[in-house]
Amino acid sequence: MIYQRSSQLFAEAEKVIPGGVNSPVRAFKAVGGTPIFVKSAKGAYLYDEDGNRLIDYINSWGPMVLGHAYAPVVDAVVAKAQLGTSFGMPTELETQIAALAVSMVPNIDKIRFVNSGTEACMSAIRLARGYTKRDKIIKFAGCYHGHSDSFLIQAGSGAITFGSPNSPGVTEGTAKDTLLARYNDLDNVETLIAANKNEIAAIIVEPVAGNMGCIPPQNGFLEGLRQLCSDNGILLIFDEVMTGFRLAKGGVQELYGIQADIVCFGKVIGGGLPVGAFAARSEIMNHLAPLGPVYQAGTLSGNPLAMAAGLAMLQALNNDAAIFQRLEEKTAYLAAGIDRVLKANNVVFTINRVGSMISVHFDADPVVDFQSAAKGDNATFKKFFHGLLQEGIYIAPSAYETWFITDALTYEDLDVTIQAIDKVSKTF
Ligand code: PLP
What we know:
By secondary structure, the chain is of the alpha/beta class. The protein folds into two domains: about 5-70 and about 320-425, Aspartate Aminotransferase, domain 1; about 70-320, Type I PLP-dependent aspartate aminotransferase-like (Major domain) (Aspartate Aminotransferase, domain 2), CATH 3.40.640. Helix content is about 40%, strand content about 15%. The protein contains 15 helices and 14 strands. The chain has helices at about 5-15, 70-80, 90-105, 115-130, 160, 170-175, 185-195, 220-230, 250-255, 280-285, 305-320, 320-345, 370-375, 380-390, 410-425; strands at about 40, 45-50, 55, 110-115, 135-140, 180, 200-205, 235-240, 260-265, 275-280, 350-355, 355-360, 395, 405. The strands form three sheets. It has a seven-stranded mixed β-sheet with strand order 4-10-9-8-7-5-6, with helices on both faces. Helix 3 packs parallel to helix 11 (about 305-320), helix 7 runs parallel beside helix 8 (about 220-230) and helix 12 runs parallel beside helix 15. The two termini are about 20 Å apart. It binds pyridoxal-5'-phosphate. Pyridoxal-5'-phosphate binds near residues 117, 121, 145, 206 and 276. InterPro entries: 4pyrrol_synth_GluAld_NH2Trfase (IPR004639), Aminotrans_3 (IPR005814), Aminotrans_3_PPA_site (IPR049704), PyrdxlP-dep_Trfase (IPR015424), PyrdxlP-dep_Trfase_major (IPR015421), PyrdxlP-dep_Trfase_small (IPR015422). Keywords: Cytoplasm, Isomerase, Porphyrin biosynthesis, Pyridoxal phosphate. Pathway: Porphyrin-containing compound metabolism; protoporphyrin-IX biosynthesis; 5-aminolevulinate from L-glutamyl-tRNA(Glu): step 2/2. Its main location: cytoplasm.
């Protein structure tokens, strides 16, 4: 495949945009080469500026769970755009999507919409601090909750990819209120709580981690966090920005039957437009302005185009109970195929998967936390990434990212992908 025009466009972009991209994970810095510039996308495929067609396993980093340019979402956005694109005043649409989200997700009475997952997590922490009147939070190494200051402490995703899990610019004052724990290690969390008695407002966790590759919670981990939170007056925040409306209608709370106190959303909830949200029981949400003292706001929050896209997406997921089963089956098929061909080619690997989130780690040991994820063989990953790209398959340009499977993928696409992995892994 030729990426001539993409390379030219990247050179132009670099002159006026730092690193040529508006979000670091889009750059190919970790794998070498220059990013692909997209012209359009439909269903499971991306079409780039050089005329190549790529099977897409990133899906805008998660939102496009039903494929690109999903007709009901596009139609809803186009229809709304004719009626005005932003008012800064309430609309009926906001109540409709809020009511639907509240009906789909367990344990929430009220939801507030924002413009990104970052804003959702940042606001959830402020709300938890305002509610508990405590300052500290616990986060897990390798989990990513967006780029607000409190979370850029051993953060996952692009922050690890680019070697800056602790970003300059985050003050020591902010960093000291974020306590770090190991994912899947309850004893570690217990020790932190004991050492900071009555000071911890919240534990924030990706209930299925996706930003150090996919890492499932081990048996009892989420249950243990729930118990520790309940016993110590700490709020449990599930960051379901990746998992919400993807792993089940009601996200991980539904999938594993665990109750969180505050839940954060992003990605799928906006149908591909810039949307985030956070939700909780009324008792907690009523602390938010204008009802309560915890301030949170947004000029474009609840934007009509974004809400129209999100509503159409949630309606589609709510109306077809079989979608999540199909996603599970397609991803299990892909995982089994990858396992088969990598074994046949004597590659050392571990596949982690929950529902339609999957990742291939080039290491033999179980990948259960940041430390074990970081052990993966990056040189092999680079060959894997570029080999697949040449075969017309687009996975994230970083070993620390999860693949997001879309219902638009056919079994033929999956077979093409498995064959390509077979071919590429012969060259390792
Ligand atoms: N939380 C999680 C779990 C995420 O994966 C992400 C983004 O990848 C975020 C929060 C931040 O969301 P956004 O990029 O929309 O700000």
